[in-house]
């Protein structure tokens, strides 16, 4: 059985066969997209697959005309993106497409011949699936160039996210927290507020000096758990009050907080213990540098490989990698730094690049490597075990924020594309 993550790539083939068997006309036009057309048969094949997916999910299907309209809109958007990619010279070589198909098969635990047989058993055409994968790769490259490369997330935005909503949403730890609450009315006179504040600071000092927190809680806390020593039990950060959560995620086990002010009270919390993902994240990092040659209609795969092979031989003959990178690499961000990519963590680069890094010894220069960004040669400079807990949280926050911005900007980009295009729907034709 083909895994569900690839189902979206398999929409056309079986349904097209079914449509022809039912005698559905294949020559009527249901939409004009600039100088291209969408045929009734293509629309109906997509509708059949969408309705089948809805049925399998157990969801009540909307009216067929609603589905048909939505599917047609999706096809139109795809056509516009493919047209723009063609105008921009964006394509996928046969070698890269073959690699992608082999990867799809491998992820399903199959060889390519087995994958082809499995598709046939499911009623899908290998050639149609191959074409769908090609289109998906082309659209991915187009979006990367036109949108994603322009999406920026600042350090300030990351820090703000981690200090706010990200404090709990990125953390699956559980915390054992004890609590002391000292009530003070929001309209209490300043003298009373100061008295309670002084008491709170005194309790913090006693707790940090070694006094049993539970004893202090029983004696002074006005919280509901006072008689239990202020024990709030094991909780996820999202189950704690926000003013507690934003502090506890960065506290060390055994630490006592500063005084926390809310409208009706002062609070003190102690992180008694924590469990789950609280372990520090120690990973094997690799520092590497590379030279990139991008694919263009002129710079074909063959030419890119030949060019990088020539540069690699120069380096092996004694040329300085950094100088060669400065003069030849098309990755402008790293070229100015001698091709240096800095310290890379597992999962930070695309799989083909990361796998090449893993195979290299320190100082070794790779053969040309193909990724969706083009062709590379890479050299490993150093390796180290590194505590990357904070960096991992920052990277996760960065990805979340970048994905949010990317979604917003892709929608704007697609709408602009639609506004500038000639689109005529003929669903009643």
What can be said about this structure in brief?
The chain is an alpha+beta fold and 429 residues long. It is 49% helix and 18% strand. Helix 1 crosses helix 2 and helix 3 (64-87) packs across helix 6 (126-146).
Descriptive report:
With 429 residues, this protein is an alpha+beta fold. It is 49% helix and 18% strand. The chain has 16 helices and 11 strands. The strands form 3 sheets. It has a 4-stranded antiparallel β-sheet with strand order 4-3-6-5, with helices on both faces. A hairpin with a 2-residue loop joins strand 1 (29-33) and strand 2. Helix 3 (64-87) crosses helix 6 (126-146) and helix 7 crosses helix 16. The two termini are 38 Å apart.
Computed structural class: alpha+beta
Alpha-carbon Rg, integer: 30 Å
Percent helix among the residues? 40-55%
Q: Order of strands across the widest beta sheet?
A: 4-3-6-5
Count all strands and give the number: 11
| Sheet of most strands | 4 strands, antiparallel
| Percent range for β-strand residues | 15-25%
Order of helices and strands: HEEHHHHHHHEHHEHEEEHHHEHEEHE
Characterize the overall form.
Answer: extended
| Termini separation | 38 Å
How confident overall, as mean pLDDT? Answer: 85
Number of helices: 16
């Amino acid at each position: 059985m083909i895994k569900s993550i690839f189902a979206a790539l398999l929409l056309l083939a079986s349904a097209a066969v079914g449509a022809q068997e039912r005698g559905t006309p294949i020559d009527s036009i249901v939409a004009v997209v600039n100088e291209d057309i969408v045929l009734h048969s293509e629309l109906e094949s997509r509708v059949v697959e969408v309705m089948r997916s809805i049925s399998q999910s157990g969801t009540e299907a909307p009216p067929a005309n609603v589905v048909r309209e939505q599917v047609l809109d999706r096809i139109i958007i795809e056509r516009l993106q493919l047209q723009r990619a063609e105008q921009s010279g964006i394509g996928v070589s046969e070698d890269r497409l073959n690699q992608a198909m082999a990867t799809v098969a491998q992820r399903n635990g199959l060889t390519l011949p087995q994958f082809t047989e499995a598709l046939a058993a499911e009623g899908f055409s290998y050639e149609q699936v191959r074409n769908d994968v090609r289109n998906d790769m082309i659209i991915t490259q187009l979006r990367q160039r036109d949108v994603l490369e322009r999406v920026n997330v600042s350090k300030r935005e990351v820090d703000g996210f981690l200090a706010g909503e990200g404090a709990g949403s990125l953390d699956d730890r559980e915390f054992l927290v004890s609590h002391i609450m000292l009530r003070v009315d929001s309209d209490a006179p300043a003298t009373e507020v100061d008295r309670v504040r002084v008491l709170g600071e005194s309790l913090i000092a006693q707790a940090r000096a070694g006094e049993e927190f539970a004893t202090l809680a029983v004696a002074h806390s006005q919280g509901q758990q006072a008689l239990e020593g202020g024990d709030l039990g094991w909780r996820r950060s999202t189950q704690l009050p926000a003013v507690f959560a934003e502090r506890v995620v960065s506290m060390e086990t055994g630490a006592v907080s500063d005084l926390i002010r809310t409208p009706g009270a002062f609070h003190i919390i102690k992180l008694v213990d924590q469990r789950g993902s609280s372990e520090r994240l120690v990973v094997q990092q690799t520092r590497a540098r590379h030279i990139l040659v991008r694919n263009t209609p002129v710079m074909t795969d063959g030419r890119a490989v030949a060019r990088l092979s020539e540069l690699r031989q120069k380096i092996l003959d004694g040329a300085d990698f950094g100088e060669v990178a400065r003069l030849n690499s098309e990755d402008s961000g790293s070229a100015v730094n001698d091709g240096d990519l800095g310290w890379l963590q597992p999962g930070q680069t695309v799989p083909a690049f990361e796998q090449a890094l893993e195979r290299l010894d320190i100082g070794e220069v790779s053969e040309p490597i193909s990724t969706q960004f083009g062709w590379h040669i890479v050299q490993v400079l150093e390796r180290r075990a590194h505590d990357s807990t904070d960096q991992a949280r920052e990277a996760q926050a960065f990805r979340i924020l970048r994905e949010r911005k990317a979604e917003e900007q892709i929608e704007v980009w697609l709408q602009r594309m639609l506004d500038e295009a000639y689109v005529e729907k003929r669903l009643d034709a």
